[in-house]
Amino acid sequence: MNSSPVSISLYLLFMLNVLPVIRARPQAYSRQANPEYTQTRLMENFTSARLNRAVWDVVSGIKKDNLYIFTDNDSTVRQANGRLELSMHRSPGYTASTWSPDGDTIITAGFIAAEVISAEEYSYGIFECSATFAHGDGSFPAFWLYNDTMCIESERPEIDIVELKANRRNPTLDNNIWYYPIECLPQTSHEFTEHKFTWGGTHTFKGVWTPERIEFWADDILLKVVYNTGQYWYPRLKQHVVLSQQITRYGRLFPDTARIATPQTSQFHWVKVQEFFLAPEIYCPENIQGTVIATLDADPSASEISWDLSPPALFNGQTSGRGIKVTITPATKRHGKGTLTYSFKMPSGESFTAEKELIINGLEQIRLRQVNR
Fold first, then answer.
1. How many Cβ atoms from other residues are within 10 Å of residue 229's Cβ?
2. Count of other CB atoms within 10 angstroms of residue 349
3. How far is CA 320 from the centre of its chain?
4. Could you give the number of structural domains in the chain?
5. Residue 245 in contact with residue 260, Cβ under 8 Å?
6. Same structural domain, 204 and 348
7. 306 shares a domain with 229
8. Is 255 helix (H, G, I), strand (E, B) or coil?
9. d(C-alpha 149, C-alpha 265), whole Å
10. Is residue 236 located within the same domain as residue 306?
11. How many angstroms separate the Cα of 57 from the Cα of each of 78, 115, 241?
């Protein structure tokens, strides 16, 4: 049958209005990076009278950029009123002693600054902080991750979740990935990005690091994603959390130390690290007509594993218990939707659950009888 162009157009318009819109389903998370299954490894609110030195190491006696020295004293590192304050100061002729293979060496600089690093190192996870960054001329605060393995032993990764370098009129929010090969040289920068950002006040920053991707967030806005496509520099080793108030020369073409404004202080209000663990997987048929065995595959560090079948009326036998294996028997002539729920704890003390929906079709029992002939 021949159709006119007009009739074809009307038919297509009709179908577009009648047929449901098909939306792409979001990509499922891998078991190694499911945000529903993270345990809290660090939650620091800085509420104690002094910095907890069991959680944080203060960097001291290191000279950076031939400009400043990290120091550990009350003028650069202070904790009070629920915040950690890291400060930078002008200090002409400041000297410090630092270790070297040939013995202690005296170093000198015109400025002092502050940096703390977590005592623990962390694997793939969600790294967040709330901070008020100093943004005057020369300020260089940052929230980042770093592996401190000796270069003679291994490569080293670094993820700069957020940096503010006030070395020009309109400082940007920067993030970056560094790679240090064995022997440390040449160190290389990858995926460096500058984002326009309005500084001032308190902001939240977040980095999500998984085996597949790294996400950079600011104030709950996704800024950038870096995918793991097999690059040699993609971070794989555990890293420490670093909070710092560094210093940068002002000006791109003609760096001018006279323009550096001091003192300046950045404040960190809280820091949180949630580490991914292997997400649980329940192996069990969805449609159950007879007795089956369900099994939970959970992270090796999971403990106190228990299970529950609901509603109980759909099942024969035990409907709750402990362990990873469950014998499921549908009740006779019972039909409906049921749920198998596992509960467990992780070393952090946090509790988690995993559920699987079941379709129960209990068959009628057939009684055999002898027929006399």
1. 8
2. 8
3. 34
4. 2
5. no
6. no
7. no
8. coil
9. 29
10. no
11. 13, 9, 10
Q: What tokens appear for 181 in the block?
A: 């090969």
| Segments forming the whole domain that contains residue 321 | 281-361
Task: Judge residue 285's burial from the number of C-beta atoms within 10 Å of its C-beta, 0-12 exposed, 13-18 middle, 19 or more buried.
Answer: middle
134-149 tens-digit pLDDT: 999 999 999 999 999 8
Residue 129 forms part of a structural domain: yes
Which pair of tokens denotes residue 281? 């997987």
Give the bridge partners for 42, in sequence order: 273
**Statement: residue 23 has pLDDT above 90:** no
Number of Cβ within 10 Å of residue 157's Cβ equals: 21
Q: What is the CA radius of gyration of the chain?
A: 29
DSSP label at residue 295: E
Beta-bridge mates of residue 293: 327
Q: Which residues of 195-228 are buried (b: 16+ CB within 10 A; e: fewer)?
A: eebebeeebbbbbbbbebebbbbbeeeebeebee
Rounded to 5 degrees, what angle do the CA atoms 31, 343, 310 make?
A: 110
Alpha-carbon span 266 to 246, nearest angstrom: 10
Give yes or no for a contact between 211 and 124, defined as CB atoms under 8 angstroms apart. yes
CATH of the domain at 167: 2.60.120.200
* The model's pTM: 0.86
Cα separation, 283 vs 107, in Å, equals 62
Residues 271 and 293 in one domain: no
Give the C-alpha separation, 154 to 148, whole Å: 10
pLDDT number for residue 83: 97
**Quick check: 10 pLDDT over 90?**
no
Do 226 and 301 lie in a common domain?
no
- pLDDT grade for 363, boundaries at 50, 70 and 90: low
Q: Which residues contact 88 (CB under 8 A, 6 or more apart)?
A: 68, 76, 111, 112, 113, 114, 134, 138, 139, 245, 246, 247, 262, 263, 264, 265
266 burial (CB, 10 Å; 0-12 / 13-18 / 19+) is buried
**DSSP annotation string for 13-62:** HHHHHHSPPP-PPPPPPPTTS-TTSEEEEEEE---SSS--TTTEEEP-SE
Across 46-59, average pLDDT: 96
